Amino acid sequence: MAVEYYTVTENEVGQRIDNFLLRHLKQLPKSALYRIVRKGEVRVDKKRVKPEKKLELGEIIRIPPIKLETEVNPPDKPALASESLLVTLEAAVLHEDEQLIFINKPSGLPVHGGSGYKLGLIEAFRQLRENLPYVELAHRIDRDTSGVVILAKSRQALTELHGLFRDGKIDKRYKALVAGRWKHGRQHVTMDLSQEEGTRQKVQRVEEGEGKVSETIFSSLKNLHGASLLEAQILTGRMHQIRVQLQNLGHPILGDDRYGDFALNRKFREMGLKRLFLHSASVDFTLRATGRRYVIEAPLPDDLKDVLINIKINAVERTE
Questions:
Q1: In whole angstroms, what is the distance from residue 56 CA to residue 49 CA?
Q2: Are 177 and 277 within 8 A, CB to CB?
Q3: Which residues of 81-96 are buried (b: 16+ CB within 10 A; e: fewer)?
Q4: What are the two backbone dihedrals, phi and then psi, of residue 136, each rounded to the nearest 5 degrees?
Q5: How close are the terminal C-alpha atoms of the chain, in Å?
Q6: Top CATH class, 4-63
Q7: CA 169/CA 265 separation, integer angstroms
Q8: I need a labelling partner for 231 at 20 to 30 A (CA). Which of 67, 157, 220, 251 fits?
Q9: CB–CB of 203/196 below 8 Å?
């Protein structure tokens, strides 16, 4: 590999040089990447830089020759999305303009690869839209959760979205089917949450001050036979926030194989519920840079609609 030179475009303005290199030298271990920066092999406008250096428009980045041990340890080839997945994602685009893309993510698809998954939404979408020079995830939702996911088409849009999420300026709402009859009306729930010791995959409620604060406003949409359909407006974005809060309130989400009631899950499986009944239903926000407001809704998927119909049918049959 020869020396490469890259001119900073608008999409990279404000990005740290280490993050830029991580994106452009994906096969290089982080330790090696920081070493070449520290040794001055990476230059910006012919000057040595620190990893936290923020890029400016028109700067020229020198990337030194990088020798990768691909002959000895060939890297895994990126997984290719199936034609059916690409067709599904194209049909799942809820709205797209020059800055943002909104996808109605199907359940079962992680938002990105890793942790045992070679392919996620973002990798598949980049294959679908190979002509896009830039597309990044603005946030995450769980693999088994369906619904609205926002992608940014520029670095500036991504940075602004991160700021809006951080400042609580994005109204994000979910629909969840929970066990039992919800009698709380509209309830503002605050809980401290923390990852369980020894695992990064499960979250638990902890005493106040011992974890990260999570806030959600729950409202009842419909009471059904043995279950309730709720709207959850999240005010914070903690891992598994809605699922853990509802578990602790005694109304676990149906179909939840981690925090749910397994006996009830089996019962509702007979009514067609084969996955977590949690759906990212809508987002509502205004971009500060343009003043443009986005109100995007993702309809409930057919498999979840069918579950609601089957619950009603089952309730009628019980009364006959």
A1: 13
A2: yes
A3: beeebbebbeebebee
A4: -135, 150
A5: 76
A6: alpha beta
A7: 35
A8: 157
A9: yes
Token digits for 104? 């109605």
> What is the pTM for the complete model shown?
0.77
Tell me the catalytic residues. Answer: 142
Query: Taking Cα atoms as reference points, which of 80, 54, 100, 61 lies closest to residue 287?
Result: 100
Q: What is the C-alpha to C-alpha distance for residues 218 and 220, in angstroms, rounded to an integer? A: 7
The distance from CA 139 to its chain's CA centroid, rounded to whole angstroms, is: 4
Provide the token pair at 165.
């999420």
Query: Which CATH architecture fits 168-319?
Result: 2-Layer Sandwich (3.30)
* Contacting residues for 91 by C-beta, under 8 A, at least 6 apart: none
Measured CA to CA, the distance from residue 7 to residue 61 in angstroms comes to 6
Residue with tokens 């679908």: 128
User: What does residue 95 show for φ and ψ, rounded to 5 degrees?
Assistant: -165, 145
The Cα–Cα gap between 67 and 1 comes to: 7
The predicted structure's pLDDT at residue 277: 98
CA atoms of 261 and 258, how far apart (whole Å): 9
**Are domains 4-63 and 168-319 of this chain identical in fold?**
no
In sequence order, the 6+-apart residues with CB closer than 8 A to the CB of 197 are none
Structure tokens at 174: 């979910």
What is the structure's pLDDT at 319? 47
> Is residue 273 left, alpha or beta, with left meaning phi > 0 and alpha meaning psi from -120 to 50?
beta
pLDDT means per 10 residues in the chain (320 residues)? 80 87 80 88 92 90 72 54 92 96 96 79 92 91 95 92 93 97 94 80 85 95 94 94 96 95 94 96 96 97 95 64
Question: What pairing do the DSSP bridges indicate for beta strands 171-179 and 278-286?
Answer: antiparallel
- The CATH number given to 83-163 is 3.30.2350.10
The per-residue pLDDT for 76 is 54
Q: What is the largest CA-CA distance in the chain?
A: 82
| 116, two tokens | 């045992």
Q: What are the domain boundaries of the chain?
A: 4-63, 83-163, 168-319
Res 13: pLDDT: 84
